[in-house]
Amino acid sequence: MVRRPVAWVVAVVLFVEAFGIAALNWFLGIVVDRQDMSLAGLDPDMMSVSSKIGGVVFGLYFALCGLVALLVAIRNRPAAGFGRILLISAAVVHGLLGAFVWGLVGWTAFLFMVVVLALIVLLLMTYDSPAEPTDHGGKGGGDSPVTSPPAPTTP
Predict the structure, then answer these.
(1) Under 8 Å between Cβ of 130 and 3
(2) What is the spatial distance between Cα 155 and Cα 88, in angstroms, rounded to a whole number?
(3) pLDDT 10s digits, 128-140
(4) N or C end: fewer C-beta atoms under 10 angstroms in the chain?
(5) Any idea what the Cα angle at residue 97 is, between residues 5 and 99, rounded to 5°?
(6) 77: left (phi over 0), alpha (psi -120 to 50) or beta
(7) What pLDDT, on the 0 to 100 scale, is given for residue 134?
């Protein structure tokens, strides 16, 4: 079945993305700090600190989403409650980021965002579908459920 490998891939991608977002924003904060220029009268120190804080917050957000995907992969059960909401919000964020990066960065960043969006949606959808039946052809596989005979019908 495809469910577990997709969950593992989503977890790895989200952890890598969490690190990448945090590192990129930290680097941008350092660049702003070293330039010592203001943008529309804003304090350069405040811009540097806010870039670093934003990077850490978004990095932790994607890491938490990766943790949810990791738990889905380990448990082989769908995410429920808050974890499901986190994964849905991560899908929405990747859709919005994909729309923005098309014009700002280029089609390769757009393609990455769409692939991550598709992986998250695939993770959510594969665990919503009913599990495959474990029919062992009547050979007593041990996993087959015990069923009672059908109830007699009266004319």
Answers:
(1) no
(2) 51
(3) 755 554 444 555 4
(4) C
(5) 110
(6) beta
(7) 47
